[in-house]
């Protein structure tokens, strides 16, 4: 069923109490020609992370996927991930929580006691289809641990409920604010990159980025206008478009 959100953005929301994966449902809608549809669920029974990892999605979270048809070259689709992570970070910060963005796709809450200097609050999964150098659709999945008990999440994860000492957030407002911010940033790469930079946990860090074929260690010094990470290894500057990133200090 469609939910009326009174959004100041062009999205139409399809709500599910429980669904295997909002990204899978959004991909099916995209294949039928949908644009700016949002699939939102209270619970996912088969939530996915990147590289076939599982994503825990108990009731109380914000699990959603947006179908986009951007006028972007495939090499620039990562801009949408930059826009979405900046938008999610901004919406979360409005709830009073000091979230930071970890390249390429995580929101963290800093915590010196955590193994990697922070606990994971949210993740993004961007999937696309296209041919002949043209993007047909992009599905942008956001998993945000809103009103989920930290005990129901993997170790090193956190939720807004936990960070706010048990005080739940209004998920409707959170979702609305995310979508409005995302809509404003998705067509404005400069603003998206500025918003990203403002709350980036990764810039200035020593990082290890694992790629399928190699591992790069160095200082994260910048993000490019398509959202790639620039790593200074001491002998050269490498531009990394995707990969798993670990903060080393
Ligand atoms: C991600 O993958 O961070 C992308 C997650 C995207 C989830 C959304 S929910 C709506 C939409 N529908 C879907 O089916 N997916 C998207 P990755 O970077 O691969 O991180 C996955 C890893 O994070 C796992 O291997 C766990 O270690 C950890 N993890 C799993 N569930 C988590 C959670 N709820 N909170 C924090 N960490 C989690």
From TrEMBL:
The keyword DNA repair does not apply. Transmembrane segments: none annotated. One of its GO terms (molecular function) is biotin--[biotin carboxyl-carrier protein] ligase activity. One of its GO terms (cellular component) is cytoplasm. The keyword Ligase applies. Coiled coil: none annotated. Residues 1-190 form the BPL/LPL catalytic domain. Keywords: ATP-binding, Ligase, Nucleotide-binding. One of its GO terms (biological process) is regulation of DNA-templated transcription. It comes from the Archaea. This is Biotin--[acetyl-CoA-carboxylase] ligase.
């Amino acid at each position: 069923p469609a939910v009326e959100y009174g959004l100041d953005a062009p999205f139409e929301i399809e709500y599910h109490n429980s669904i295997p994966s909002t990204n899978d449902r959004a991909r099916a809608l995209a294949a039928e020609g949908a644009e700016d549809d949002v699939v939102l669920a209270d619970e996912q029974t088969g939530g996915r992370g990147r590289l076939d990892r599982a994503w825990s999605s108990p009731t109380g979270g914000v699990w959603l996927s947006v179908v986009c048809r951007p006028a972007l070259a495939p090499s620039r689709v990562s801009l949408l991930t930059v826009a979405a992570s900046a938008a999610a970070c901004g919406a979360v910060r409005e709830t009073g929580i000091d979230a930071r963005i970890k390249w390429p796709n995580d929101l963290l809450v800093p915590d010196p006691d955590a193994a990697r200097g922070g606990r994971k609050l949210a993740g993004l999964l961007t999937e696309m289809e296209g041919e002949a150098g043209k993007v047909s659709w992009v599905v942008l999945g956001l998993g945000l641990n809103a009103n989920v008990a930290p005990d129901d999440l993997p170790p090193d994860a956190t939720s807004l409920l936990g960070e706010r000492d048990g005080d739940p957030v209004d998920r409707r407002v959170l979702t609305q604010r995310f979508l409005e911010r995302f809509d404003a940033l998705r067509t404005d790469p400069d603003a998206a990159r500025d918003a990203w930079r403002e709350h980036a946990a990764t810039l200035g860090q020593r990082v290890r980025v694992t790629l399928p074929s190699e591992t790069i260690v160095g200082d994260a010094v910048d993000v490019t206008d398509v959202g790639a990470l620039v790593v200074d290894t001491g002998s050269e500057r490498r531009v990394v478009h995707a990969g798993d990133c670990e903060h080393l200090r």
